[in-house]
Amino acid sequence: MTSRSTARGWGRVAAGLAALVLVAWGADSRAAAPVEEPDAMLRRFALIVGSSEGGPGRERLRYAGSDALAMSRVLEDLGGVLPTDRVLLLEADRDALLAALERLRSLVEAASTPGVRRELVVYYSGHSDADGLLPRGERVPYEDLRKLMGKVPVDVRIAILDSCGSGALTRFKGGLRRPAFLTDASAQVRGHAYLASSSADEVAQESDVIGASFFTHFLVTGLRGAADTTGDGRVTLHEAYQFAFHETLARTERSQGGPQHAAYDIQLAGSGDLVMTDLRGSAARVRVAEDVQGRLFVRDWGNQLVAELQKPSGRRLSLGLDAGRYHVTLERPTQRFEAELVVGTKSDAELRVGDFVPVTLTRTASRGGPAKDVPLANESGTARDDLPTVAVNLSLVPPVSTSALWGGSGLNHVALGGLAVRSYQLRGLGAAGGVGWVDGTMEGAQVAGIANVTGGEALGLQVALGGNLAFGGATGGQVAAVINYSERAFSGLQLSLVGNRADHEMRGVQLVGAVNMVEDLMGAQVGIFNLAGSVSGAQVGLINVADNVRGLQLGIINIADDVSVPIGLLSLVRKGRISFEVWTDDISPLSVGVKYGSRTVHVVASIGVKSKEESWRTFKSLGVGVHLPFGAADRYYVDVDLSTGSWQHQVFGKTSNNSLFQLRTSVGWELKRRFALFGGVSVNLYEPPPEEEDREVTWLPQWKVEKGDRAARVWPGLFLGVRI
Q: pTM for this one?
């Protein structure tokens, strides 16, 4: 390992540690940027599915979920798909997939606008065979998939299947491999396009080297601009398919699974090209100069490969990337160069020949043969697969370690460090008094006194006193005293005292003493402050903030764009309801109250007053209820509310507080918009002090109920009022 690469490696360690504080809590530039509406003439909907399990006898896929996330991200960044028009399913089964298609159908039907063309993109990464998809081993026949997609009322349907034998979809019912007729100009195109990662009798391959399936990796790279052969800043379906086809075939020709040929069935009619992505509106772009020539590998600062392509001389190229720092490798037959690049959100970055510096190659000699130059890394920019496995890596600091004796790269099963230990890949146990670092995938457990950092995917457990950082996502658990952070998809448990953050989809639980942050959650957040994008599950904390919650928000303050069940003292729901009521009942002649919450679940707070001779009473209550509208235009409704309160009785300055519980059912009729008349019945349970009878709480008949050493009274009540 050269001194330069060693210094760069330690620079990444320092950057990773700084990211534990700066990245985790800094404002996300993507979230802060305004969301641009797509072309007013086009609205694109997407169903993105990743399913790693294929049932008994089929090996679990490593990158189905991350492939789905990569496709989802490029369609949102550059493909005109709004977050509200996208359905993302990770580890979906057959029922979830079919339900998502039905949900998209309803969404598209509700979005019908004259003059606006609608398109549907369905992407699937997972297992399949010649007869159909196999999400979690449950078959979805290709015929059913076609029929269900056909029921969605759109002008163009695009299916992209990255799975074994998926080419059977393209030949089903007359699908032929023939020259593409890709037309769509603007507003004239109609029809369908089915793309498959492999032919009907081939396997679709994924690779640990690139951390993805070959087809999705190159398709996403192409959609980000590498496939833009015309240089107009737009990538058409034809360009994207051709790029993915040739790159996938080239990279799999000598693989163990054999050459992989993408297939298609495209039947579109119109004029022009079907544009899949548009880089002209991208907030962050990288321009590659004409004189840059060779194979480019672009990695983010977490060492994840985000783009790979062959760059010919004389061609200008633009790539739409997220803002951040990148490491770029340029490979030629006998040369290798590296550069570092910073991509901002307000101006384009340019990559020129002068930005690259050569990397020293290691001279090796085979026994009995002449010496030759062999690069330390293979064409992907990662360590060569044929480098030796160093089962036990003992390290004081990475340059002083047993792995360094073998060139600094390799697979470790046990990695033990004093100040720090670094592995290219870890399958087993890593432990360090300071920092534990893995460039690629970690499978097993990492334990560190300060921090654990994984550039690839973390499969297992990370435990640290300081923080855990997984750039490639994680499956398992992160336990830290300070911070846990996952840049990509996370499945499992995040537990810390200060903060947990997952930048993408998470399936599991976040438990924290302070702050939880996640982009999309299927599970639960428990902490003082919970912040999320979309939630399917629950947020439990003092303050809960989210966009859309399909489930429960339980806290002192709940804030959401939409939520199923908000329970708290203050629930602010943008798409919810707030109403004021005035009524009279058998307890008090005048009561006022407010109901606020979601469209179906609300919090109710009220106060009622009653005076009699020299005494007066007040009744204060707080409870929860459900709102069930029905009839034409929801003009009628039923409310069911459960509340508890204090019936305060005051006579000559003497005050007694008694408990009153109410279950109320009301039927309302909206006479005009925002004005309704309601009435109903209630069941009341009243507990006066032991020394008082206080039968004047109501004029209706009451029944005495023994409750231990105290007596309560029960009666049915009546009420009538108006709602504003």
A: 0.50
